[in-house]
Amino acid sequence: MMVPASATALATSPYASGVTTTALHPALPQLDAAYAAAAVANLQPPAKDTTWTKLFVGGLPYTTTDQELREFFEEFGEIEEAAVIIDRQTGKSKGYGFVSN
């Protein structure tokens, strides 16, 4: 594993006394451990990372609901989540949303 230069600088810094390098490892083993711990404890695993599967949908009519957005995109495959973004103060749609599979 290649350690970033900033991590090397941190490890050799006089200000980093007592700092361990465990935070320098990739997050994947930690995520696998979280899933394993959840399975052992019979709990739900952490939410699926939708960073690469979430689609921005803009220009929605302000009357569009989450259910209508979901139904439209289900034509193209299974949808895990469909959400129209709502303004907190007014409670009205902002005219965009997200869909993830």
Strand content: 15-25%
Biggest β-sheet, characterized?
3 strands, antiparallel
What is the rounded Rg? 21 Å
Secondary structure tally, helices:
3
Give the end-to-end Cα distance, rounded to a whole number of Å: 31 Å
Task: Name the overall outline.
Answer: elongated
Structural class, from secondary structure content?
alpha+beta
Oligomer: single chain
Order of strands, widest sheet = 1-3-2
Name the poorly predicted regions.
1-11, 15-25
Characterize the structure shown.
The chain is of the alpha+beta class. It is built from three helices and three strands, in the order H-H-E-H-E-E. The protein has a three-stranded antiparallel sheet with strand order 1-3-2, covered by helices on one side. Strand 2 (81-86) and strand 3 form a beta hairpin. The longest helix has 13 residues, at 28-40. Mean pLDDT is 74; it is low at 1-11 and 15-25.
Question: Which descriptors would you attach to this protein?
Answer:
single chain; 101 residues; alpha+beta; three-stranded antiparallel sheet; 29% helix; disordered N terminus
Short description:
The protein is α+β, with helices and mostly antiparallel strands. It contains 3 helices and 3 strands.
